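User: Can you write out an input/output pair for a complex, sequences first and structure second?

Assistant: Here is one pair. Inputs:
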Amino acid sequence: MSGPQSVGSPRTLTRTGPVIPSSLLAMVALVLTEIMLFAALISSFLIVKADASIWPPLGQPRLPVIVTAVNTGFLLGSGFMFFLANRRFRVGDFPASRKLMGMAVFLGGVFVAVQGYEWSKLLGFGLTVTSSIYGSFFYLIIGFHALHAVGALVAMLHLFLTFGPQGQSASRFLGTQVFWYFVVGIWPILYYLVYLS
Amino acid sequence: MSEAHTHHEMSFWEKYVFSTDHKIIGFQYMFTGLFMALIGGFFVYVFRMQLAFPGIDVPGFGHVSELAYNSLVTNHGTIMIFWFAMPVLIAAFGNFLIPLMIGADDMVFPRINRLSYQIFLLSALVLIASFFVPNGGFGGSWTAYPPLSAEAQYNATPLGAPMWVIAVGLEFVAFLLGGINFITTLMNARAPGMKMYDIPIVLWMIVIASILFMCSVGPLLAGAIMLLFDQLIGTGFYNPAHGGDPLLWQHLFWFFGHPEVYVVLLPAMGIVAEIMAVFARKKLFGYKTILYSVFATGILSFVVWAHHQFIAGIDPRMANLFTVTTLIISVPIAELCFVYIATLYGASITFSTPMLWALAFMAEFLIGGVTGIFLGASGLDVYYHDTYFVVAHFHYTFVPIAIIGFYAGITYWFPKMFGRMLNEYWGKVHFWGTIIPFNFIFIPLFILGAAGQHRRISGYVHFPDLYTQDLQNLRIIATVSLIAMLAFQVVFIVNMVYSWFRGKKAEINPWKANTLEWTVPSPPPHGNFAEFPTVYRGPYEYSHPDREVDYWPQNEPGPDPAKSRK
C-alpha cells in the first residue's frame, strides 16, 4: 500500500490533531444510538399498524395534518437558522451568529408550543395514551421527539445566553448543532409515517 | 498535563469516590461488578441446591418457593450479564487500559466518564432494592417476555418488575456514556506515531464492542420504555387485546440481545490475544485478519437475532433465513480461533497463570461455539429449545467470556493495577479449581437437556419422566461441582487481597511486554505518563531476529519492522 521506504525511516511524529473533533465524534455516536432508538419505535408502530384491520381505530380522532405541516415549516426554519448561525460563526462574525442562534431557538420554541397546543386539543377529543394502541404510539413517538426537542432547545438557549464577544466554545457549538440537526432531520420522517400514512 | 499535576492534595472522597481519573473509575466498575457477581453466585448456589435436593431448606437461604426460584434465576442471569460481564470486561478494562495503552493521561471526557459510573451504581442499587420490595424481585426470566413481564397478575411482582426494567434502562444509559468516551478517546487521543494498525487488539475489541452496543441498544431502550408503560400506565403495546403484539418485544430484545453476546465476547477475546502474544513470545498472527474478522462478526451479529425465536411462532421461511445467517457468523469466529491457534503454533509457551486462563478460554469457548451450531439449526432447535442444552450452551460461552476472560485479564494486569505480583502457586490452584468443576457443572446439563429437561422449572418432583434416579444424579453432580467452583473462588479473593498488600513488588514491566501501559510505574500515577510517549511500531514485535532481547516496546525509538519488511 505505502510505497517502498528505506529501512528504519522514522515515522511522521507530529500530532496533527484529530480528523474529527471529539465533540463532533461523541455527538455522532450518540445520534447513531438515537437513530436506532427512533427506528425501533417507528418499526414497532408500523408492525402494529400492519396487524390492525382498521386504522386508525374506530372512535379515535384524526391527527391535525395541516397545522402540523405548517409547524414542520417552523422546525425546518429553525434548523436552517442554526445552519446560517454556523456559517457566521465560522467566519468569526459572532454578533450575527448570536442573532441567528436566537432565531433558531425562537422557531424551535414555536414548534414545541404549537405541538403542545395540538396535544391539549387531541386529549380533549379523547386521544390519550391509554385510549387505544393508536394513542399509545402517537404519544410515545411524538412525545419522545418532543422531549428531544425540549432538551436540545434548553442546550441551545444556554448556548445563546452565554454567547460572548469572543463567540462560544466551538466544541459545544458543534455538538449542539449536530444534535439539533438530528431532531430537525428526523421530524419530517416521523410526520410522514405517523401523520400522513 | 502539567497543570493537572500541580493541584492540591485530594481528600479520600475526591480521590476514590468522585474521581474523574480513568483508573479509579475502572476500579469502581470492577469492584462493583465483582460485588454483583458475588450476589449472582449466591443466587445460583440457592437455586441449584433446590434443583438437586428439591424442597430442602437451603443453608443460608431457607425454603425456595416457586416465586423465589423464578426471581433467583432471573436475577442470576440479569446480574451476571448486565452487572458483571459488561461492567468488568468493557467498563473496567476499557477504562483502565484505553488511556494507558494509547499513551494518554485520561479519557477525552473524564466527567462524562464519572457520570457513567454514577448512573451504573444507581442502576445496581435499584436492582438490589428490587429484591427487598413486597413480593420480591422480578421473576420473568432475564429476557422478560411479555405478557409475563408486562402484567403484574401473571408475574406476581407488581414492584419488582418495573424496578427491574428501570435498573436495566439506567445501566444501558451508563454504558452509552462510557461507550461514547471509549470511541472518542481511541480515535482522538492516541500517542503520536500510533496508527490504526498499531493499536493493541484488545482496544480495538473494546471499542468495536462499544460501537455494537450503541447500534443495538436503541431498540432495547425503546422496547423497555414500552414495557414500562405497559406495566405502569396500562398501555397495550404488547397486549393483543389492545391491538399490541407480544412478539414485538422479542424482536426488540433480541435485536439487542444477540449483538450483546459479541459485545461481551470481543473484549474477552482481546484480552486473550494480548496474553497469548506475550506468553508465546511471538508476534500475534494475522493482526489485520483478526480485525476484519471482528468487523464481519459485528455486522453479521445484527442479522441473526431471530434464531432465538424459532419456536415463537415466526414464519418458517424467516427461520430458514436466520439459520443461514447464524451458520455464517460462525465463520469469522472460527477464523479468529484458528488465527489465535496460529499464534501459539511453534511458540515456546510460558504456562503462567494468565496464559493458562487464556488457553482455557479457547478450549471452553470452542465447546460453547460448536454447541451453538446445533441450536442455530432451526430444525434441531425445535427439540432443544428451552431445555438445559441451551442453558449449558450459553454458559459454555458466557463463563469463558465473563469469568475466564476476567481472570485472564486480572491476573495479567494485576501487577500494573496494584503494583504487586499475584501469587503464582495459588493462582494455579484457583485456575484448576475453577476449570475442572466448571466442566462438571455443564456437561451434565448438556445430557439433561438432551434428555428433555425443560428450563424454568423449580423442581422436577412432579415430572415423573424427568425425576428418575439417573437424571437426579446428574443434577446432584452439577450442584456439587458448582459448590466446589464457588469455594475455589475464595482462593482467588484471598490471593488477591493478600498480594495487594503483601505480594512481591511488581517491576514496571514484569512480563516483558511491548504495549505502552508497561512503560509507566506500577501502579501508574495520576496522569499516567511523566512524558507523553511516541510510538514507533506495532504492539506485537516479539522475538525479532535483529534484536538481542525478545521484545521491542512500542515507544522505543528505532525502525518499524513492519515497514522494513516492504
